[in-house]
Amino acid sequence: MSSSRSTRRALLAGAAATVAAGVAGCLDRSTEGPADDEDDEPIVEVAEATASEGETDPEAWADVEEVRLEAYVGGWVGVEPDLIDRIENPTLVLVEGREYEITWENGDAVKHNLALHDGDGEVVGEYATGVVEDLGATETLEFVARPEIETYICEHQPAIQYGAVDVVDG
């Protein structure tokens, strides 16, 4: 009888360890991708490429004043300019002191907003839009590019719906 109990305890301990490892993996909020990025597929189905394929040459962004994005739970998807078309969570390159507009459209009828954050994760100035949850609804954020802006983020899905902002000298 003790052999049966030992086997059952070993089986339960193994199952518990497997469940614990699975849960720990789900709770990992690391933003680092897998070691082999060559086979990365976009999280958002409508995206065709990951952010690593976006254009970040400041000269290519010199004439850009307006940015259009689509908002999905899985991430932002670039629409305009062509530099970011169908890019998931694209890096935005902005010129310090220049005025910009970012217009985003709700693509999945889930709550979204867009806020510009600094390196401490705080909203820069009052650079944030209202919350929209209606499919197809849009919001536009007008702002002046400041060097402290480092990311754009949806404050409702901050772990997966964010992108980098590179503010360059004018």
From TrEMBL:
Positions of the UniProt region annotated as Disordered: 27-58
Superkingdom as given in the UniProt entry: Archaea
InterPro entries named among the record's database cross-references: Cupredoxin, TAT_signal
Ranges of biased composition (kind: Acidic residues): 34-43
Protein name, as recorded: Blue (type 1) copper domain-containing protein
Organism this protein belongs to: Natrarchaeobius chitinivorans
